[in-house]
Amino acid sequence: MHVILDYDVGNLQSVKQGFDRAGIDTVISKDPELIKKAYSLILPGVGAFKDAMEALKESGLIPLILDHVKSKKYLFGICLGMQLLYERSYENGDFEGLALLKGTIDYLNVDLKVPHMGWNDLSFYKENHPLLKYIQKGDYVYFVHSYYVNGDYKDLVAYTNYGLKVPAIVQKDNIIATQFHPEKSGQVGLNILRAYKEILI
């Protein structure tokens, strides 16, 4: 069972449809017993970091997420859900994240339009990574964000260039995350989720 975490942030039905199309049967839930039994968790998110972290705290899901990761089961973060996995964010202040990954969330201070909204191509940092199995360098995915991960390149799988190198896919052990929306990225996003399904097997 794969659970999309419901903490009242984000378009969860869109995420569910994307994973379901990739053959990953999901349920949307905030039920602790269901989450404890989950084979993998999906952490989506849209909006501001501070609001999302407060919603996560209020939901009571944080201890469940941390226990899930400690038990070596997979966690997949999407967009703001990816950013929440890091140590802290400087979006309109200074706020602590889940600290499952090393790095900060910094403003996308570039001479380009911000928010970064639209299709951008992927460059591979780890050429033979299993998540990249069904896609190619230069494939396009869909981004919507004003802040980016300033993190540990040891975890970097793929990135896009948007005035600077923006981490697009990261993995550390059983934690995987994408800055873009795979569920909104057409066949390329579907292929990434297909590869994720194979990693889970």
Automatic annotation (TrEMBL):
Domain of life: Bacteria
The keyword Amino-acid biosynthesis is assigned to this record: yes
SUPFAM superfamilies reported for this sequence: Class I glutamine amidotransferase-like
Keywords: Amino-acid biosynthesis, Cytoplasm, Glutamine amidotransferase, Histidine biosynthesis, Hydrolase, Lyase
This enzyme's EC code(s): 4.3.2.10, 3.5.1.2
Signal peptide: none
Compartment(s) where it occurs, according to its Swiss-Prot or TrEMBL record: Cytoplasm
One Pfam family matching this protein: GATase
GO annotation terms (biological process): L-histidine biosynthetic process; lipid metabolic process
Gene3D superfamilies noted in UniProt: 3.40.50.880
Coiled coil location: none
All residue ranges annotated as the GP-PDE domain in the record: 1-39
Gene Ontology molecular function terms on file: glutaminase activity; imidazoleglycerol-phosphate synthase activity; lyase activity; phosphoric diester hydrolase activity
Gene Ontology CC entries for this record: cytoplasm
Annotated catalytic residues: C79, H181, E183
Catalytic activity: L-glutamine + H2O = L-glutamate + NH4(+); 5-[(5-phospho-1-deoxy-D-ribulos-1-ylimino)methylamino]-1-(5-phospho-beta-D-ribosyl)imidazole-4-carboxamide + L-glutamine = D-erythro-1-(imidazol-4-yl)glycerol 3-phosphate + 5-amino-1-(5-phospho-beta-D-ribosyl)imidazole-4-carboxamide + L-glutamate + H(+)
Main location: cytoplasm
Pathway: Amino-acid biosynthesis; L-histidine biosynthesis; L-histidine from 5-phospho-alpha-D-ribose 1-diphosphate: step 5/9
UniProt xrefs under HAMAP family: HisH (MF_00278)
Role noted for this protein: IGPS catalyzes the conversion of PRFAR and glutamine to IGP, AICAR and glutamate. The HisH subunit catalyzes the hydrolysis of glutamine to glutamate and ammonia as part of the synthesis of IGP and AICAR. The resulting ammonia molecule is channeled to the active site of HisF.
Subunit structure comment from the entry: Heterodimer of HisH and HisF.
UniProt name for this protein: Imidazole glycerol phosphate synthase subunit HisH
Originating species: Peloplasma aerotolerans
